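hey
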């Protein structure tokens, strides 16, 4: 009988407690709606990202897209018809790349760029891959085939990664415009 009280009973109690806590956590996660946003972005984060990337947008709604392009992470449609926001990874100096949101209006003109995540070299690459930097403003007003920006000495790969990311977003916009915006 010592085995039951010392080993089996505490083990069963621990299993039940773990199951209840796991169930409560899963229920809370689903009730908060975070699971519906894709990539774990909360509504507040999307508002923050889009305020810089697509300032004219009132609210973004994710559009499920089937794409073989591995750099494409998410596509969002502005509810008020202001355009779409594309979240993608672009290769900079760091092997992790730069995760960025590029907002484009209905004509495919870049309205803004927001850096969601980057692991570029501190003090060098993060000078350009930084939301407080004026560097990102160079992309506003550009369309596919017209995107260019000055590269920054010491951050050439990061600069080129941002240029490539904006060009990729404009290219994806051209491919997805009809499906996302219905135009």
């Amino acid at each position: 009988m010592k085995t039951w009280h010392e080993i089996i009973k505490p083990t069963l109690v621990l299993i039940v407690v773990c199951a209840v806590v796991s169930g409560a956590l899963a229920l809370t996660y689903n009730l908060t709606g975070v699971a519906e946003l894709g990539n774990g972005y909360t509504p507040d984060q999307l508002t923050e990202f889009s305020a810089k990337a697509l300032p004219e947008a009132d609210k973004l709604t994710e559009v499920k897209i089937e794409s073989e392009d591995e750099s494409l992470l998410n596509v969002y449609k502005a509810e008020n018809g202001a355009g779409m926001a594309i979240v993608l990874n672009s290769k900079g100096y760091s092997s992790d790349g730069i995760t960025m949101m590029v907002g484009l209006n209905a004509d495919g003109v870049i309205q803004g760029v927001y850096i969601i995540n980057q692991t570029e070299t501190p003090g060098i690459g993060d000078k350009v891959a930084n939301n407080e930097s004026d560097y990102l403003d160079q992309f506003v007003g550009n369309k596919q085939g017209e995107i260019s920006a000055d590269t920054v000495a010491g951050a050439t790969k990061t600069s080129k990664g941002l240029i490539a990311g904006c060009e990729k977003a404009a290219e994806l916009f051209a491919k997805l415009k009809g499906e996302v915006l219905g135009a």
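The CA atoms of residues 63 and 76 lie 6 Å apart. The chain has three helices and five strands.
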